[in-house]
Design brief:
- The chain contains ten helices and 14 strands.
- It is an alpha/beta fold.
- The chain folds into two domains: about 150 residues, Rossmann fold, CATH 3.40.50.10740; about 140 residues, 3-Layer(bba) Sandwich (Glucose Oxidase, domain 1).
- α9 links the parallel β10 and β11.
- α8 runs parallel beside α9.
- The radius of gyration is 18 Å and the shape is globular.
- About 50% of the residues are buried.
């Protein structure tokens, strides 16, 4: 992206706080971007964890993606609900609109994963406009804000890890995101596959036994078959997840880097999913290149 580009903010999951959304939009405008808000971005409905009806949320997302004046679609926040939209989107029309940037994290994993399958475009996993990392009252979190700008404007920086669970070097298209969302997609037509890829995993508020259950589900569903490496992000309010992560993932025999500040923690660094990534446990880092999955093949 470049200064002067237009960003559309939509709410495919939960309803954002209006004040936070306003602050986030102003900070994006401070980068020289033009910001427009989806018509239903602040809607609420009877199911109060959703930002309006499924039809309205899907219409906002599709209209923004198909608008030739829009260069990027930013999801206002996570929560729950993005997966409910997958069968309501006209993927042919969105494919015809050409590539642009999708930004989000957490529940937006459902969109990252499916945009990769249906549209074949890299998507940006990072801080969202109505969340504290971008819209905090004291300003954006400095390290994550700098890292986000670098990724958005084409010079992605490496993401440092804190520990190595399994040594080695791995290269492959980076995929994944929130563990709960990936497990929930098993058995659907958007079934996850990490074959030939590096998978990023993170979560929040999950007890270790639930992390075990979700990893076991993905393992038994064959999602990890052919995986080249694993990057483990933040595990906020998950107790000590490392015994179960080692137990479930070390038998795969691939490089595993852990403690990356990607996911729900602070700072929240940004990574391109659907683009080439490299795990290097000697430097304890995950680096990426803006090179899409088709080129990586």
């Amino acid at each position: 992206m470049q200064p002067g580009d237009t960003v559309a903010i939509v709410s495919p999951s939960g309803t954002p706080d209006p004040d936070r959304l306003r602050r986030g939009a102003e900070r994006l405008e401070g980068l020289g971007l033009k910001v427009v808000l989806g018509p239903h971005a602040l809607d609420r409905q009877e199911l109060d964890y959703l930002a309006g009806s499924d039809a309205a949320r899907a219409a906002d997302l599709q209209a923004a993606w198909c608008d030739p004046d829009v260069s990027a679609v930013f999801c206002s926040r996570g929560g729950y609900g993005a997966a409910r939209l997958l069968d309501l989107l006209d993927w042919d029309a969105m494919r015809a609109a050409g590539p642009k940037v999708l930004l989000g994290s957490s529940d937006i994993t459902a969109l990252h994963h499916t945009f990769g399958i249906e549209l074949g475009v890299p998507t940006l996993h990072g801080p969202m406009p109505a969340c504290d990392e971008m819209a905090g009252g004291q300003g954006p979190e400095p390290r994550g804000w700098e890292h986000f700008q670098a990724a958005l404007f084409g010079t992605p920086q490496p993401v440092p890890g804190e520990r190595v669970l399994s040594p080695g070097t791995a290269e492959g298209v980076l995929t994944g995101g929130n563990l709960s969302l990936l497990a929930s997609m098993c058995g659907t037509r958007h079934h996850p596959s990490f074959d030939g890829k590096i998978v990023l995993l993170e979560d929040i508020g999950e007890e270790p036994y639930r992390i075990d259950r979700m990893l076991t589900q993905l393992l038994q569903a064959g999602a990890f078959t052919g995986v080249r490496g694993i990057a483990l992000g933040s595990w906020v309010d998950c107790g000590d997840p490392y015994p179960v992560l080692r137990d479930r993932l070390l038998p795969l025999g691939v490089p595993i880097l852990a403690g990356l500040p990607v996911g729900h923690g602070t700072p929240q660094l940004s990574v391109w999913l659907g683009a080439l990534g490299v795990i290097d446990t000697e430097s304890c880092s995950l680096s990426g290149q803006f090179r899409d999955e088709q080129q990586a093949r």
